[in-house]
Design brief:
- The chain has 17 helices and no strands.
- The chain is mostly helical.
- The protein is globular and about 55 Å long.
Length: 453
């Protein structure tokens, strides 16, 4: 059922929205970690190849972020105004427009993927990454559409349906992975397809496709207080599509610049060999899991903020962002404490390569400290996505990644030839810079005046 978030306890509403989102995304990240566990059974070289592909692949995430962040503002504020017709149109256009953009992005990236990957490592490692990657690109429109369906449900106050969908498909993924990857399924001793890393990709696209169709059914069933139409998916709405491309454009540029910077950073990591690349891949997935509380709080709080601003309740929106900041930093402190004591134990679950474990452990320690700062800024920044004032995301990424982290790496790795720990330290300084920028923009308060239609 949909939910009016302009009333009731802010703390309770944030958790009612955030916890299902956290659980759903955590289930997905658990799958990603299990996926990495099975890939690690093939080799650390396979992990390195898929890490390179994934880093490049997520550059196109900027398109998803542009349209997705725009849709949060459009859908939640329309729903907060009780304008069901506009809510339906925003949902229809989000799905259709994002599908088309994903199709274009997949075609372009497929042309340039191979030569880009060759910049980082040897041909055998690249081939493993491509074996996994090409089919993922082919199904990119389904992946983006699945995100759209889940976002729409959350924006109308229904986070539980996406949660159950994500849990179901994650369990399915975990079951399918070894069946498609190996000739005999571990622990079950039943015949498998022996497709290696390609099998891991197949399991992923099957689960993503099922997630999309289940979510699509619930969203269009008319049982959630809204009724988007199939007919509305077959045409573009110029005004809405312009809003979808412009409201979230700064946020999309932020994601693009962040992911593009990650590609350059990967170049600095590759200097230290495939074991460093593999460590970055494993630690990155672990950070992804730790980031889920922030994602849940962000989606929960930004929806409350969007609905509150739609109802012109600025005080409630401000209180929601501050509550999200407090909760975010609390979760990140807990994660940091766990990492400080158990980082090597966690990494040893994915590989027995001593150097990979050492590299990954150091990265986790530096990065988790940075996440404490980032958690606070991330919580306050929910005010930007809920209001549709997304310029701070772009500026924070420019300063933190391109103004701080990459120059830091050029000086300490390229010029001074320091060891890899200085690569990991660069993430800490970048996160600190990003937090300072976000807090500064939040305190200026321009987001309080922003409305979208």
């Amino acid at each position: 059922m949909s939910k009016d978030l302009t009333k009731g306890s802010i703390f309770k509403n944030i958790f009612l929205m955030a916890i299902p989102t956290m659980i759903g995304f955590s289930a997905q990240m658990i799958y990603d970690l299990v996926d990495l566990y099975w890939i690690g059974k093939i080799s650390s070289q396979a992990i390195a190849g898929i890490t390179i592909f994934t880093t490049i692949f997520w550059v196109v995430e900027s398109l998803n972020e542009i349209i997705g962040s725009s849709s949060i503002s459009l859908i939640s504020q329309a729903f907060g105004r009780k304008d069901i017709k506009s809510t339906n149109i925003a949902i229809e256009q989000t799905i259709t427009f994002k599908f088309l953009m994903a199709l274009i992005a997949a075609i372009i990236l497929s042309i340039f993927l191979k030569p880009i990957m060759y910049l980082f490592t040897d041909i055998e490692t690249v081939n493993m990454g491509l074996e996994y990657g090409y089919i993922r690109l082919f199904f990119l429109p389904i992946m983006f559409s699945s995100y759209s369906v889940n976002t729409a449900l959350r924006c109308i106050g229904d986070p539980k349906t996406p949660m159950f969908i994500m849990i179901f498909v994650s369990i399915l993924n975990i079951f399918l992975d070894p069946i498609f990857m190996f000739d005999k399924t571990p622990f079950l001793s039943i015949p498998g397809f022996n497709l290696g890393v390609f099998g891991a990709a197949v399991a992923t696209i099957i689960s993503q496709s099922i997630a999309f169709f289940i979510g699509f059914y619930f969203l269009f069933s008319g049982k959630r207080g809204i009724k988007p139409s199939l007919k509305g998916l077959l045409k573009l709405n110029k005004n809405v599509d312009i809003s979808l491309m412009t409201i979230g454009l700064p946020n999309g540029f932020e994601i693009f610049l962040r992911n593009l910077s990650n590609t350059f950073i990967l170049g600095f990591i590759s200097v230290f060999g495939n074991n460093a690349l593999a460590a970055n891949g494993i630690a990155g997935r672990i950070f992804g899991f730790a980031f889920m509380p922030l994602v849940g709080l962000s989606m929960g709080s930004s929806t409350i903020i969007g609905q509150s601003l739609g109802a012109n309740d600025v005080k409630r929106a401000e209180d929601s962002s501050k509550m999200a900041a407090f909760l975010s930093i609390s979760f990140m402190m807990i994660f940091t404490i766990i990492i400080l004591f158990f980082s090597q134990n966690i990494l040893s679950l994915f590989t027995d390569n001593i150097e990979v474990i050492k590299f990954g452990s150091d990265f986790l320690i530096f990065g988790s400290i940075g996440l404490i700062f980032l958690g606070y800024g991330f919580g306050l920044a929910t005010a930007f996505s809920g209001s549709g004032y997304n310029i701070p995301f772009f500026i924070s990424s420019m300063i933190s990644r391109w103004g701080v982290q990459l120059p830091f790496l050029i000086v300490f790795i390229k010029i001074l030839n320091f060891d890899i720990n200085w690569v990991w330290a660069s993430f800490l300084f970048a996160d600190l810079a990003e937090t300072i920028v976000s807090v500064s923009f939040y305190n200026k308060g321009k987001w309080k005046l922003k409305r979208v239609k």
